[in-house]
Amino acid sequence: MPIDHLNCSARIAAALVALGLVSAQAPDPEFAAPAAPAASPAPTVPAGYETVAIASKAADRAVVTGYLKRPSGVAKSPALVALHGCGGLFTPRGTLTAREIDWVDRLNGLGYAVLLVDSFNSRGFRSVCRLKASERQVRPFDRARDAAAAFAWLAANPAIEKDKIALIGWSHGGSSVLWAADQRLNFEATEMKAAIAFYPGCCVPSESQKWVPRVPVTILIGDADDWTPPETCRTLAAKHPSIRLVTYPGAVHAFDAPNSPLRTLTGLGLTPNGTAKIGTDPKARAASIDEVRRILAEAFK
Predict the structure, then answer these.
(1) Contact present, 135 and 269 (Cβ < 8 Å)
(2) How far apart, in whole angstroms, are the C-alpha atoms of residue 80 and residue 299?
(3) Sign of the C-alpha dihedral, residues 92, 170, 24, 130?
(4) Long-range contacts of range 96-102, CB-CB < 8 Å, 24 or more positions apart?
(5) Can you tell me the mean pLDDT for 26-46?
(6) In the CATH scheme, what is the code of domain 5-299?
(7) How, if at all, do strands 263-265 and 243-248 pair?
(8) Distance of alpha carbon 120 from alpha carbon 112, whole angstroms
(9) Gyration radius of the chain's alpha carbons
(10) Entry pTM
(11) Selection from 159, 199, 186 nearest residue 79 by Cα
(12) pLDDT tens digits for range 194-214
């Protein structure tokens, strides 16, 4: 799947300038050099997770690690495959990220199993946030194939209702959800019942003449997001009626993370000036939790 990074980068920069989120100036050279990827310490997960091995359908045929947590007291349940962002599934200390823990516990409470797919540590690195697009070892369309393999693994698990599996992802993982929904990728074992993308990068699909969603997709994004600007997602949704776009006024990237202070990251690889705001927006977080609950209740009924 060819990607026109220059065209996308120009579109993102123009959208951010139009939204008043950045000034129309050249990127600060301080952020031009990407940091080298670093493997995290041995990952650790809280009690209750089962560690599994999944043979990816990506070109590298990597065996990726998954972490499955099932709802207690349930013999068989619907399930979600969950895809982390560009910062990886684990913190630099090797602990599972707070956002993923929060969502897993929440989804378990609704009666759903969750399979977290670790696309990065499984391949020997922790994060790609500081890398330019051309330097990233794994891209969203690769991770879409990780997701396809995770669906097949869940469909073969007797504790999972194989016709009730959904896909959810955040940021880089949200972009991976979009690629997983593309008509050119066949989930052979079972089709996804819902596809939910939190603040994805929509530029590449919106520029592509070949990208067409084969299943309905819901995109949840803040209208003040200066990392993955919503304008490109609006363009994408306008092209494809099966995409439902939900925007949250004033919210920035990672608005659904629990207790995350509003702050500006620097040295990023895919923003015009190497910076982006992230942080919890309580109102948007609550609304998105309700939205996900509603989507899954409808999908799994």
Answers:
(1) yes
(2) 11
(3) positive
(4) 96/43, 96/44, 96/45, 96/46, 96/67, 98/257, 98/258, 98/259, 98/260, 99/170, 99/254, 99/256, 99/257, 99/258, 99/260, 101/46, 102/257, 102/258
(5) 49
(6) 3.40.50.1820
(7) unpaired
(8) 24
(9) 18
(10) 0.88
(11) 159
(12) 999 999 999 988 888 899 999
Q: Over the stretch 45-77, which tens digit does the pLDDT of each residue have?
A: 999 999 999 999 999 999 999 999 999 999 999
Q: What Å distances lie between residue 238 and 147, 214, 225, 246, 278, CA to CA? A: 26, 16, 19, 13, 26
CA 75 to chain centre: 28
In sequence order, which residues have a C-beta less than 8 Å from that of residue 277 and are 6 or more positions away? 224, 226, 227, 252, 253, 262, 263, 264, 265
What count of Cα atoms within 13 Å lies in the side-chain half-sphere of residue 79? 32
Nearest Cα to 84, choosing from 50, 27, 112, 43? Answer: 43
User: For every residue of 156-207, which 3-state class applies, written as one string?
Assistant: CCCCEEEEEEEEEEECHHHHHHHHHCECCCCCCCCCCCCEEEECCCCHHHHH
Q: Measure the CA–CA gap between 20 and 268, rounded to whole angstroms.
A: 19
φ/ψ (deg, to 5) at 205? -60, -35
Q: Are the beta carbons of 274 and 266 closer than 8 angstroms?
A: yes
> How many Å apart are CA 115 and CA 54, to the nearest integer?
11
Within 8 A by CB and 6+ apart from 162, the residues are: 154, 155, 156, 189, 190
* 195-198 sheet: strands from edge to edge: 50-55, 63-69, 113-118, 77-83, 160-170, 195-198, 217-222, 243-248
Q: Which long-range contacts (CB under 8 A, 24 or more apart) does 23-27 make?
A: 25/273, 27/272, 27/273, 27/274
Residue with tokens 């969203």: 140
Cα 214 from Cα 236, distance rounded (Å): 14
The mean pLDDT value for 5-13 works out to 46
The answer to whether 187 and 166 are in contact (CB under 8 A) is no
Determine how many CB atoms are found less than 10 A away from the CB of residue 73. Answer: 6
Rounded percentage of the chain residues whose pLDDT exceeds 70: 87
Domain ranges of the chain: 5-299
Q: Which residue shows structure tokens 């008509």?
A: 183
